[in-house]
């Protein structure tokens, strides 16, 4: 029973194409009717599942979860000051939220590689005025153009340090997101618990640390933002693989 990350695990950070072995693993899981769930911190496309399928990943309809799938459980449509990519802002509006940078009911923060310090200043001011602060996920870093950028988790840590605010997290690695992921995979196999799940990801801090706390088995792939285990507490890991291809070969031999 698997939780599968997307970026850096199933898709290449370089060109967003499927990493060798990704299509084959999904097809194998489908053919054996094994329970799995794609868990991603996508915040740019409301139809990301369809895009993944168009790339040749034959993901089942009930085997996908991202922050947009659960967002309205955290915040009902209202006025928001949203910070992130143009695509993120468009998604938020499509979901029924109104962009308001004067008197918002909440502040939303998503990944973006073009933040300006005036954006951070505005976030700090809203936080100091007790506006609800929401991180769409809590990834510490992400990779783009062969470079590492600070993720939402790092940005929120900065805002929290400057304003002493508290904030909620919608996507990974929040307990609420993993709890919903467990509920969703139980639709495929009803008796599953966290201890029965193996999570595969390229994000040691943003995905695997919290997953281990919940009792999941954790597998790190070195095909994304992390290319080695130097400096990591590998004692929490149940496996390290160069890519999903190597994991898939070992996994299929055990089935």
TrEMBL record:
MF-aspect GO terms: phosphatase activity
One GO CC term, this protein: cytoplasm
Coiled coil: none
Record InterPro entries: HAD-like_sf, HAD-SF_hydro_IIA, HAD_sf
Record key words, sorted: Hydrolase
Top-level lineage group: Bacteria
NCBIfam families: HAD-SF-IIA
Protein name: HAD-superfamily hydrolase, subfamily IIA
